[in-house]
């Protein structure tokens, strides 16, 4: 399902296309994709809020099996269960790459943006940026871990939440419904703020201590918060729920403007920080943790040909958990 021209999702901009089978270059693998998660970032790409090479096959939560290995690939073999995430490559030589912050590499390329991704039957990917799927997970169960899951995990790390702490989650989509499982595993108390009634129900069902809308007061000060919805007005609301020294981690690649707010909301050494991509270390840690917990994604599955519908339902906030294309 390929994007040639960006447009509002109601206009179904993704079109089925017949492409030549991809051949892995040196250092790459070819993958037979079995499932691909649908991410809000795909929606931003399709609608033009995040710029991409066009035409492009979106999709950066691809899970499947290695079909062929290119020259020089070690450690992966034909038939291995693998997944590909958002980061497709980094330069490996800049100060950020060398300093353990490859997620910030200014020369990075991205799956389903700079090269064809997982809304397809086959793809190629750099072997260095291809992960082994955790044991016991089908491709459909593992796909949402590859972006929604890992980025949510990194957001939890950057929020500074400690075991047993009080954590606020603003928005309760694919990423938050995985992050809550990690937070509960860390014995945190979770407070979920979301305007969708069915998302509040899901959060309670999954173990949230409290649910409400973003403007509501849970009655206690939070130690940390993560915002997932791309709505700038959530940032001051999240800050206002934090105790001194607390951090709001903003898990969004694109966001509406953040309204101005009184300095008092930030004073007390509160912090607002964004979350950008993830490192391979984050992915390895998170995938191991997913198997240990074990983490269970709730998914709504669509055939590949219905990628436009799946994206429209993500935009409308209609999905409980994660949308996944079955291929
Ligand atoms: Zn770099
Ligand atoms: Zn994503």
Characterise the protein shown here.
With 327 residues, this protein is an alpha/beta fold. Helix content is 24%, strand content 25%. It has nine helices and 17 strands. The strands form four sheets. Strands 3, 4, 5, 8, 9, 16 and 17 form a seven-stranded mixed β-sheet that branches. Strands 12-11-10-13-14-15 form a six-stranded parallel β-sheet, sandwiched between helices. Helix 4 packs across helix 5. The site of one zinc ion has 5 residues, from loops.
Question: Cα distance, first to last residue?
Answer: 11 Å
- The number of helices is 9
Shape: globular
Alpha-beta classification: alpha/beta
Give helix and strand order, one letter per element, not per position.
EEEHEEEHEEEHHEHEHEEHEEHEHE
According to DSSP, the number of beta strands is 17
Task: Work out the radius of gyration.
Answer: 19 Å
Strand content: 25-35%
Tell me the major beta sheet: 7 strands, mixed
Mean pLDDT across the residues is 97
Helix content: 10-25%
- Provide the low-confidence segments as ranges: none
User: Which compounds are bound in this model?
Assistant: zinc ion
